[in-house]
Amino acid sequence: MIKNVIASVPARIWEENRPPRLKVWEVELNVASWIRVSGASGDLALVLVYEDEAGEHTSMVDRTAVDGDGSALMSGLVRTRITGDVARMHVVLQLSDEGMRFNVDELFVQRRGSAVQKEHKLISNY
Question: What is the model's pTM?
Answer without folding.
Answer: 0.88
